[in-house]
Amino acid sequence: MDWRLLLASYTQVLTPDTLLFVFVGAIGGVLIGAIPGLTATMGIALLVPFTYGLDFIPSVAMLLGIFCGGMYGGSIAAILIRTPGTPAAAATVLDGYPMGQKGEAGRALSIALFSSFCGGMIGAIIMTFLAPMIAKMALKFGPGEMFALAVFGLSVIISISGKSLVKGLIMGFFGLLISTVGMDKTCAYLRFFHFQGFYDGIPFIPALIGLFALSEVFANFEHMLKSEGKAAKIEHVFPCKKDMKTISRAVVTGGLIGSFVGSIPGAGGDIAAFVSYSEAKRVSKHPELFGTGVPEGVAASESANNGCSGGAMIPMLSLGVPGDSNTAVLMGAFIMKGFQPGPMMYVDHLDVVYAVFAAMIVANFAMLIVGMLGVRLFAKVISFKRNYLIPCILVLSLVGSYAINQNMFDVYFAIVMGVLGYLFQKYDFPLSPILLALILGPMSESNLRRYMQIVDGRFLLMFTRPICVIFFALAVFSLISALRNQKKINKREEEAEQAMKEGA
64: number of CA atoms within 13 Å, CB side? Predict the structure, then answer.
């Protein structure tokens, strides 16, 4: 580590012009992330052409500002209107929205902001000091390891199943079933539905919007004219000392999990957020409260998905392999500026690498400042009358569904998923297992097929690979822990019901 060069990189980034572009990127990222259907990837892709005339450092700083701002922005819609602004914020819905419904939207937003900043800083620091080491580890991930990672991710389904494990598993299997729709990636055979809109599989963003946003719209139509949202009081733009103490463990653990998962090419913030949420629930003294609006749930998911921002940069810079869709677009921006990400970046352009490290740190601070200035405004959304708010959510959801591919088929599909989501909720079937299965189903299937072709169908050879064994062991451990937690939850609920009967 060349400390002199690292410090010199901050002098390049901390200039008025570069700081201006970072803040412009952070503001744009937060706004784009908060609108359902518009992801940070889309924001980066849209602005890459506008950076063509800029110097390298200001342009990359602005794009990193969008990256970091977009990851936090997704939590705003998740907390306020039960619609993850980005896929990475899907786990934030589980406790963020219930907090908003209890009149604690401001508290949830401040916790999400603080956790996002801390997770992003953990990821950026790890990227700065451990990038080469983690990149070497990422090289060892082949199809077998990716399949084992997906299995470990799927083991989280039990933790997010709510009160009924059976219903959660049913929803998980339903998600896995519909994730097989579309063109088989191995032999190009079209499965199930011969609609052009399904050729590439289930449209993920429209499915997410339909399950969480439109289902909520349909559920609220009958109450739209009868009630108003609870006004959210913003006493502090930062969590209070009590909340900081409560979420500190979840924030640190989530940031580390996000950095590790993000450094694996093909994984992303959505997987990291669910894994972190499951871990926070596993170690909690009150796991039965998760899903009802607890700060740890929001902190775990937000610190993890923002930790991924630094983690995903590691394989891109060190190996020339993007960690996720965001870094894939960033890699295009690097190449457009004449820099080819990969091992030679550390040899030929070490000053550029350090400048990127510095820009990532500054981008997280810019996201924090933008969030602090805007949190009071964001929290006012929930106090709008429902007869104004619900139609606005409906319009945003339909526009967001259309914006991805500019295809009306996606809009119709989102409406169908919204109706299904409404019916599932009505009969107490959890929606999150479907979303997790849609994320991990294609990943597990494609990597298993590739691995079986490589080893000529000898599946048991996977257990000779150390990383695979570790992930399978973690999956078993996760399942056992989740089942134990569920037993504790059931026992506490029975004791509470018994106490109420005796009191009556």
Answer: 32
Q: Is the whole model's pTM more than 0.85, yes or no? A: no
Q: State the SS3 of 384-436.
A: CEHHHHHHHHHHHHHHHHHHHHCCHHHHHHHHHHHHHHHHHHHCCCCCHHHHH
Is residue 156 within 8 Å of residue 174, measured between CB atoms?
no
Q: What is the number of other CB atoms lying within 10 angstroms of the CB of residue 244?
A: 16
Work out the pLDDT band at 225, boundaries 50, 70, 90.
very low
| Phi, psi dihedrals of residue 190, rounded to the nearest 5° | -85, 120
- CA-CA-CA-CA dihedral for 63, 64, 69, 71, to nearest 10: 110
How long is the chain? 504
Phi, psi (deg, nearest 5) at residue 237: -80, -10
Q: At what angle do helices 325-336 and 295-319 cross, to 10 degrees?
A: 40
Q: Tell me, what's the pLDDT at 226?
A: 46
CA distance 327 to 283: 32
**How far from chain centre, in Å, is Cα 271?**
7
Q: Are 190 and 199 in contact (CB under 8 A)?
A: yes
Residue type, 503: G
**Range of lowest pLDDT (111-120, 171-180, 187-196, 429-438):** 187-196
Rg of the chain's alpha carbons, rounded to an integer? 22
For 18-50, what is the HEC assignment? Answer: HHHHHHHHHHHHHHHHHCCCCCHHHHHHHHHHH
Q: Please say if the pLDDT value at position 266 is more than 70.
A: no
Alpha-carbon torsion, ordered 61, 28, 107, 290, to 10 deg: -80
Task: Express each pLDDT in 59-102 by its tens digit.
Answer: 888 888 888 888 888 888 888 877 777 777 888 888 888 888 88
